[in-house]
Amino acid sequence: MVMCANKVKGVFAGNCHDVYSAERLSKSNNAQVLTFGALVIGPKLAISVASAWLKSDFQGGRSKSKVERMHALEEESFLKQIS
């Protein structure tokens, strides 16, 4: 699912199986979509991971330039597909 989601322009998705990674996905990468591997994570942990992700906000700071580069790369890639 994460691979499909990331094919949609403007969508940044990540696959997480622990609380720390979910927090970083939001705080450092400003991702709007969180995915799980159904055979990797159980329902209780999925709820904890999703809750941590939902409570986290993008912090900007050192990560801001990285996220801006990801957006620029995405824009460049989609323009090449149109040409």
- The CATH level-2 architecture is identified as 3-Layer(aba) Sandwich
Q: How many helical elements?
A: 4
CATH fourth-tier homologous superfamily: Sugar-phosphate isomerase, RpiB/LacA/LacB
Average pLDDT score: 91
How is this fold's topology laid out?
Layout: H1 2-5, E1 13-15, H2 19-27, E2 33-35, H3 43-55, H4 62-82
Parallel strand pairs: 1-2
Helix pairs in contact: 2-3
Explain how this protein is built.
The chain has a single domain, classed as Ribose 5-phosphate Isomerase B, Chain: A, CATH 3.40.1400. The model has no long low-confidence stretch (mean pLDDT 91). Helix 2 runs parallel beside helix 3. Helix 2 (19-27) links the parallel strand 1 and strand 2 (33-35). Strands 1-2 form a two-stranded parallel sheet. The protein contains four helices and two strands. By secondary structure, it is mostly helical. It has helices at 2-5, 19-27, 43-55, 62-82, and strands at residues 13-15, 33-35.
Summarize the structure in short.
The protein is mainly α and 83 residues long. The chain has a single domain, classed as Ribose 5-phosphate Isomerase B, Chain: A (3-Layer(aba) Sandwich), CATH 3.40.1400.10.
